[in-house]
Design the sequence.
């Protein structure tokens, strides 16, 4: 599988910026990397960034896009910037923190699990996975594998990974930022499902009837 060369600069620069904001929040490299869980978090972040280069995902509007949903991207970007810096800052200043190294390590585990769940569907869909709500050329409905149970596994992975990042810094504020991600994420889910229903009709309606949006047995 060829690397996503067009997205490579965005992925690499975005990863460096995200980590840089966290290091800045913690007060510098020495302070940040004095914690083994944060070293593990950094390694996981770069491994997932490297994997993303080969996932096949894109930012193409494809053949048909719901442009009215693009506002969600701005909200995600804002929450993302705050999530990169603020949890690290509150960790350093001991503001609304959850005590214990076990919290940090549980955060690392959740970050890895969420990142895996976030990327797995991108590899499954390849070029059909876009950062925009869009129908791609040759788009086909995938209803097997991980998509046989939940319709939006990558979004669930995003939430789990965000929670893991917050807990790695013992940050109550970070947990709140994860919660604030849910409303725009659900707006994106509704827009995506409306587009897929318009594209695939009864096939998607039947698929939707037998699966869950994000959490099996709950939603």
Sequence:
């Amino acid at each position: 599988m060829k690397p996503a060369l067009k997205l490579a600069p965005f992925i690499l620069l975005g990863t460096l910026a995200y980590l840089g904001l966290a290091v800045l929040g913690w007060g510098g490299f020495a302070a940040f990397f004095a914690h083994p869980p944060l070293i593990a978090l950094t390694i996981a972040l770069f491994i997932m960034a490297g994997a993303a280069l080969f996932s096949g995902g894109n930012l193409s509007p494809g053949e048909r896009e719901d442009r009215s949903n693009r506002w969600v991207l701005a909200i995600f970007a804002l929450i993302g910037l705050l999530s990169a810096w603020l949890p690290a800052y509150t960790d350093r200043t001991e503001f609304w923190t959850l005590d214990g190294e076990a919290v940090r390590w549980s955060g690392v585990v959740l970050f890895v699990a969420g990142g895996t769940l976030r990327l797995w569907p991108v590899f499954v869909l390849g070029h059909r996975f876009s950062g925009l709500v869009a129908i791609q050329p040759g788009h086909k409905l995938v209803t097997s594998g991980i998509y046989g149970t939940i319709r939006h596994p990558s979004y669930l992975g995003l939430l789990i990974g965000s929670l893991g990042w917050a807990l790695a810094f013992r940050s109550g504020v970070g947990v709140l930022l994860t919660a604030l991600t849910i409303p725009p994420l659900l707006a994106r889910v509704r827009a995506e499902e409306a587009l897929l229903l318009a594209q695939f009709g009864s096939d998607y309606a039947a698929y939707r009837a037998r699966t869950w949006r994000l959490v099996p047995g709950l939603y």
Notes: The mean pLDDT is 94.
